[in-house]
LamB/YcsF family protein (Kangiella geojedonensis), 252 residues
Amino acid sequence: MTKTIDINCDLGESIQPNDWARDAELMPYISSCNIACGGHAGNENSIRVSIQNAKSHRLAVGAHPSYPDKENFGRQSMTLSEKALRSTLKEQINKVQNGCRQQSIELHHIKPHGALYNDAATDLALAKVIAEEIASVSSSIKYMGLAESAMLDAAKAVGVDFIHEGFMDRNYQKNKTLVPRTEPHALHANLEDSLEQALSFAQNRAITLPDGEKLSITVDSICLHGDNPNALQIAQKLQQLFQHHNIDISLG
């Protein structure tokens, strides 16, 4: 029996057409994408072209809002009032939502970016604000976030569907959060470890922590980082590995 798993990728994180073309090269190997909304990267042109390319490859399109901080690529936590946070989330999500409407496709999900994502994984109040903003756009839009985190609890509380996400190239801590990028062993040292972790997620097997312990995390979607210089080669190898194990890359 063929298993299925969604592979998602963060795209549109540049305003350079050459980078949009590289994003498009990844699209045959993934099933969903998260498009930068201008908070940490991107602009109206990158959003439009990214949606157009995603539509042509029949990908599920998501918005990828962040703290409004292009200088740090959205990777530093910010202290915003709830009003300011809601305002920037609305503005960013609307850019992708409007882009989808113009190209006659549905916005499928919303996935926070960077520090906003990491903060919401452990801060229920913050995660709930994001969930409420998702619900205000449409009851059919899903919330993509760190598997089995506070974002799941927020989604349940607000009544939006949740997509449990796992990362193939990031190491995890015992509490099921990611090892911070500022610490050693945040990223897998080699591609083989990343591929093995992706296969473990897809097969519902425990992953291995940096200290050798095992951790079980159930995921619906696996993130492939599109900003990796070798992203295309990684995507191709991942597809080959999954085909060998009778795993179909799709939304299911």
